[in-house]
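Need residues for this backbone.
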């Protein structure tokens, strides 16, 4: 690389940050993130950043507000230390599901978070599989929204399963499922469901044939896993002989792991945008695919002035 970037890791996902640094052949810049007894965040960056291109790696995953505040304070510290450019590398962008007004007097929190990151001093944002693509337009700085699908495709091909059907758990994910089906030469099915309350879903019926097929449920986020497990039950009832689930962001909140363990899903394949909890690691059903190479290559190309287009193919 013509210009060697500085990588600074927040505390949300240090393993991923270390893998990205390893991919780039550099070390993470020394930085300390401390907390006062009342919970306030304090940051100390122990390396000169003046006129440097700095990438801050921090997922805004649970605890979302703590990790978001940490990201903002690190960015502010870099701005005041005269970093040339500051890129916020946010593998998982929290608040992305609050991207529009769904009721009177409701906030658009995804836009608020975008404003906070920009005002803090970030010059660009690098993220993976935004829940809603229009969030890129909430920023007045460049946003690179990478797709984890090429990395997940490679893992799915390694399974060497035949007679595949790609299943979208809702109508909103049909475009994503169609892309998977095309790349994997598989058929397509859609779960038709009705959601009565937040984080609860009721499966109605399946559009498409899944009988005697290996079904792969694809989504961008697995949160409480209610939709996922209800969909898997419907697939099993309709004759699917094997069921995989595939998602980018493993939020796994509330009863998610218990639901997955007790579901007919054979394996859940996720990326490491969010670190797994101990219960997820010990569940025996979760496989993690690293996207460190994807993010590392994006950082390499941004720093050297290369094109990111090839990463989207």
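Answer:
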């Amino acid at each position: 690389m013509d210009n060697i970037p500085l990588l600074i890791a927040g505390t949300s996902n240090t393993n991923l940050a270390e893998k990205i640094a390893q991919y780039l052949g550099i070390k993470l810049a020394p930085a300390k993130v401390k907390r006062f007894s009342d919970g306030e965040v304090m940051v100390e960056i122990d390396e000169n950043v003046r006129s440097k291109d700095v990438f801050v790696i921090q997922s805004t995953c649970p605890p979302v507000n703590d990790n978001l505040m940490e990201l903002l304070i690190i960015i502010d510290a870099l701005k005041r230390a005269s970093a040339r450019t500051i890129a916020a590398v946010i593998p998982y962008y929290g608040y992305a599901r609050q991207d529009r007004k769904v009721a009177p007097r409701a906030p658009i929190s995804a836009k608020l978070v975008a404003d906070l990151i920009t005002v803090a001093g970030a010059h660009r944002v690098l993220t993976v599989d935004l829940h809603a693509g229009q969030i890129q337009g909430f920023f007045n700085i460049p946003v690179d929204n990478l797709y984890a699908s090429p990395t997940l495709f490679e893992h799915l091909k390694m399974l060497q399963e035949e007679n595949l059907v790609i299943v979208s758990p809702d109508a909103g994910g049909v475009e994503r499922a169609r892309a998977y089906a095309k790349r994997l030469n598989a058929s397509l099915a859609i779960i038709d469901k009705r959601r009565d309350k937040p984080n609860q879903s009721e499966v109605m019926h399946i559009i498409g044939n899944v009988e005697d097929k290996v079904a792969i449920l694809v989504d961008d986020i697995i949160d409480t896993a209610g939709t996922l497990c209800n969909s898997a039950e419907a697939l099993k009832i309709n004759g699917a002989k094997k069921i995989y689930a595939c998602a980018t962001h493993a939020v796994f909140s509330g009863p998610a792991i218990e639901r997955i363990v007790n579901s007919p899903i054979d394996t859940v394949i996720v990326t490491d945008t969010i670190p797994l909890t101990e219960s997820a690691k010990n569940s025996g059903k979760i496989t993690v695919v690293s996207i460190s190479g994807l993010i590392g290559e994006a950082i390499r190309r941004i720093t050297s002035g290369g094109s990111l287009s090839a990463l989207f193919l």
